[in-house]
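Lab notebook, bench 4. The sequencing result for the construct came back, and we need a structural model before the next group meeting so we can plan mutations. Quick request posted to the team channel:

Model the 3D structure of this chain.
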Amino acid sequence: MRRPRAWQRMLSGRRLDLLDPTPVDIEIADIAHGLAFVARWNGQTNGDFPYSVAEHSLLVEALFTRMVRAAEPRWQLAALLHDAPEYVIGDMISPVKAAVGPGYGALDERLTAAIHIRFGLPAAIPVKVKRQIKAADRVSAWMEATQIAGFSEAEATRFFGRPDATLIRGLDIVLRPPRDVREAFAARHDALLAQV
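Done. Here's the predicted structure in token form:
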């Protein structure tokens, strides 16, 4: 019996099998483009442009770099790519991901491993680094919730914890056109990859 078709043609011309991804079918241009068009918060944010996963990823990497003294470039790259699978599987809020079940997590892990290997990272990053990236992700969620997603500070703090004010100083969220975010994401990726 033939396996069901699970591949998608990327704008780069690659054919990515979403269920069995290989590193050779991963291109940063496809990731940057896809993430620049995937809206966080299911698109429920204020502003003239959606707040994209690419913009979120840039913020998480900036926060990670501030939170981890002398962060290694490879872990900064891992922070930038922490949501990279969403370029093909989209973004869902965490409670929905949990409700979908372990299949979503397994799919995310396979894509993450292929992406990491493609860019010279270990398939699975160390637990300590993963926790540090998750901590930066939570700070980003608080910032997004209070600045563009309509949460009060008290409500956001209940869900995500209140970050240190000095940590987030100067990192206000500014919405940009997808083209600009795509270019910024790709440029940051290239700069970090050159140091790995």
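The beta strands are 7-9, 15-17.
Will bring this to the meeting.
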